[in-house]
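Forum: Protein Structure Q&A
Topic: Joint prediction for protein chains with partners

I've read a bunch of threads here and the consensus seems to be that you should model interacting components together rather than docking separate models afterwards. I'd like to see that in practice. Below is the full input, 492 residues plus whatever partners are listed. Could one of the regulars post the assembled result?
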Amino acid sequence: MKNIGSVFAAYIIGWAVFFLFYVSVARRTASLRADVQRLKDSLNKR
Amino acid sequence: MSLMSNTSALFGKELRTEFRSRELLTTTVIFILVVVVLFSFTFDPTATESRRFGPGLLWLAFLFAASLMLQPCFLREQGNDTLSALRLSVPDPFAIFLAKLGANTLFLLLTEIMMIPVFAILYNVPVFRVFPQLVVVLFLGSLGLGVTGTALSAISAQARMRELMLPLLLLPLLTPLLIASTEATAALLDPKPTLRWDWLAFLIAFDVIFLTALWLFGEYLLEE
Amino acid sequence: MKKDGLFAFVVVALLGYSAYAAFYIAPDEKTMHLVQRIFYLHAPCGMTALVAFLVAFVGNVGYLVKRENKWDWLGIAGVEVGLAFCTVVLLTGPIWAKPAWGVWWAWDARLTSTLVLWLLYVSYLLLRTMIEDPDRRALVSAFYGVFSFLDVPLVYGSIWWWRTQHPQPVVFTSGGLDPTMRKVFYLSWVSLTLLMVLLIRKRYELEELRSEVQALEREAEA
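Posted by a regular:
Agreed with the consensus. Here's the joint model:
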């Protein structure tokens, strides 16, 4: 099957872009959620 | 109408400021000349090649010149906070933009018209038989440069690395104008010159769209 | 939180199925054969990028008129997601072009327009990094976002008309779409649009959280 490699490459690269974007956003979101919790806790302690 | 009289008063101020020293006009003309000469080393300057590459290179030179020449537009209003004074002096802030873009368009047009004979000589292209039509194309293109460049100058004045930000913001935005102006100019410099109304209409649309957007939202850029 | 997870699962499942459809269900195309199947990813990504930029435009106008931060969050989310989709278009285009036409880049109208759009919106992101004050940053980038979006039809129009005057043989479509091809195309388009919604929501949430952290930090200092 000629060019099957190209089709695979295109789909994998395409999905990789979306996956990397999602992971980057999810990681930063989780870290900020932790910050929110930490700040709320320290404010409650006052 | 109050907007017109305010605009013409500010426009007069912009002209007087520039013509007192003429430094903006002279440096811009020399810059375009340098770019045009440098470009000629990048291809074989025969008559056919010049006709193919000439118009595009000319407009690229105008675009680069504009993105440099428009830097001081709002930057010089930051020292001594003259921008606040301007804002207080007119009820409609759009007058400030209109005056500045009018002046910028005029300065650009003047530098371009001064460059045309030099371009004609260096690249051996016949311009004088189509000179009036060429001025129309130059005017519509310069108006687009003036509108977008003045707006973006107000933006970049508020950012860091403003000397690099203005060209960076302006040049991709001007892609349609570059294409339309180049095609219209190339058609005029052809052995059988034609006035391309389709590209001229496109330039007019470009100018109207961005002028309207500037009218609707421009005042927010001048806020404290 | 659970609703989010469910939605993400549905999106991934749909994407997987649309890829399967692109590989196995869609019929073979006459001239380009296998390589043409990249079309089912490439073309809908282009359209979805434009929709994402439209969402950003709505956010930008919303901020200019209302001055509430949530519009700014919508703006930045739309631009970043739109850029992601643009990037996929720009990466899959050459992967399709090289086997199909022998060249990596042929200055085809749609691909060239997408490249200009990519540059335009990358400048938007760069502009945001160059302004410290958050309110000023939101205001200024909203204005530039409006200008950028107004440029989109002008870019497409001028480049398309320009290419029509100087045509070349590379065409990134599937000719006349046969009914099965059309169904696979729509499936792919729907799943990518849902992906766009998912990504914009996640990115918007991130900005919302960032604002909450800043508010809490200010309260902690007080």
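Residues 18-46 of chain A form one domain.
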